[in-house]
Amino acid sequence: EELKPEFELAREFIKARVAANMTQTDVAEKMATTQSVIARLESGKRVPSIKTIDRFAKAVGMKFEFHFVQN
Description:
Elements: H1 5-19, H2 24-31, H3 35-43, H4 50-59
């Protein structure tokens, strides 16, 4: 079953953080925020801004790219 976009995004946050071998606290420190903010991003309960997604990507040593794909 296809996940809702916000949960797909949450899954991508977790995959990126784990691939970078970082904890939520590590990412929070690089983003100058708190671990609870990172936990909320990874929960999929709220849709973050593009700026926040970009900051997260940089914190885990990645680049954020957005693409539309054909159904």
